[in-house]
């Protein structure tokens, strides 16, 4: 059952979003890259938790899609010498 968010929870969510939105101007390039990678992996973990935890379905499609993207990026980096953000 979904509960209504309290005022404190809403204000914390807004503050977190504002802080996250200000990160490109606050953090160094390396720290921003690490934060981006952390958020991607966190989203991956949340999607697996939703599928496997709440529904009980075992799905390796997420892992296959994630691995295929990593493999394609590595091939683009090695063979075509593309910059990392473009690959």
Overall mean pLDDT score? 86
- For the record, give the distance between the C-alpha atoms at the N and C termini, rounded to a whole number: 41 Å
Radius of gyration: 18 Å
Gross geometry: flat
Number of β-strand runs: 0
Helix-strand pattern, N to C?
A: HHH
Structural class: mainly alpha
Low-confidence stretches: none
**Number of helix segments?**
3
Helix fraction bin: over 70%
Q: How would a crystallographer describe the biggest sheet?
A: none
Task: Tally the structural domains.
Answer: 2
Q: Quote the beta fraction.
A: under 5%
Layout: helices, strands, pairs:
Blueprint: H1 7-26, H2 29-54, H3 61-80
Question: Could you describe the 3D structure shown?
Answer:
The protein has about 90 residues and is mostly helical. The protein folds into two domains: about 1-55, no CATH class; about 60-85. Helices cover about 75% and strands about 0% of the residues. The protein has three helices and no strands. The longest helix has 26 residues, at about 30-55.
């Amino acid at each position: 059952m979904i509960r209504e968010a309290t005022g404190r929870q809403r204000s914390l969510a807004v503050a977190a979003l504002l802080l996250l939105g200000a990160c490109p101007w606050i953090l160094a390039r390396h720290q921003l890259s690490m934060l981006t990678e952390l958020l991607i992996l966190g989203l991956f973990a949340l999607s697996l938790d939703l599928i496997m935890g709440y529904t009980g379905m075992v799905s390796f499609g997420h892992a296959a899609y994630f691995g295929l993207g990593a493999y394609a990026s590595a091939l683009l980096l090695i063979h075509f010498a593309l910059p990392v953000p473009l690959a």
